[in-house]
Write a structure and sequence with these properties.
Helix content is 40%, strand content 23%. With 225 residues, it is of the alpha+beta class.
């Protein structure tokens, strides 16, 4: 089934039993439409009647896998992407390389490319049988490990691409990235920009500085027309 990306805004109507993850709730849009939203990530600050914006993949007309959630009521945001693919790919790659090296060495002994004298005075027949057993044993393991490594690599690439799309969505919603400037620097920057260009944009509810294209306040969640 082909999935499509979707952004929804609405209110958490109620939590439901999840059939595909740890977090599951019904999202009610302003028009009354209901959507079943779920995510395998469960550590999310969320309550009934919270006003939220979700970005995810639509698996059916009313079933959404949530990848990013902005809680306007609690002034929080969560990127709901599983991060285990990164280390599983690294571990799988290391084991695949080790098994490949062992397989190549065993194959070289089997083909007598590496002389028997290199490993001592082992009987040549025993050496041949041992190398043959190693090759036969390692070959299926080698194939399986590289198939798994390829699958993990694909998953990691998908996660990285999804993270980029979430970053674009956050930019459209006016959610700024963490800023390392201290408070005094921020205040000076805001004053300089507002005085020199007159283009600075501020939230009418909390006074937070916002980018010109912002549709929502990243601090209090107030909506802009």
């Amino acid at each position: 089934m082909r999935e499509s990306s979707i952004v929804l805004e609405g209110q958490v109507k109620n939590f439901v039993k999840s059939d595909a993850g740890n977090l599951a709730f019904m999202l009610e849009e302003p028009g009354g439409s209901l959507h079943y939203c779920f995510s395998p990530v469960k550590n999310v600050s969320l309550g009934i009647s919270d006003e939220v914006i979700v970005y995810g993949s639509s698996q059916s007309a009313n079933k959404i896998r949530v990848n990013y959630l902005m809680n306007k009521t609690r002034n929080t945001e969560n990127t709901l992407i599983e991060t285990k693919q990164s280390w599983t790919y690294s571990v799988s790659l290391i084991f695949s390389i080790i098994i490949t090296i062992l397989f190549v060495i065993s194959l070289l002994f089997l083909l007598r490319i590496i002389p028997v004298s290199v490993i001592g005075t082992i009987d040549s027949i025993f050496n041949f049988v041992f190398a043959l057993i190693m090759v036969i044993t390692l070959l299926p393991v080698l194939i399986i490990m590289w198939v798994l490594t390829s699958a993990f690599r694909k998953k990691r690439s998908e996660s990285e691409e999804l993270a980029k799309r979430i970053k674009d969505v956050k930019k459209e919603l006016g959610v700024s990235e963490p800023d390392t400037l201290n408070t005094s620097q921020k205040q000076a920057e805001v004053q300089n920009e507002s005085i020199s260009s007159g283009t600075a944009k501020f939230c009418a509810h909390c006074g937070e500085r916002l980018p010109p294209e912002a549709k929502f306040c990243s601090k209090c969640g107030a909506k802009w027309d």
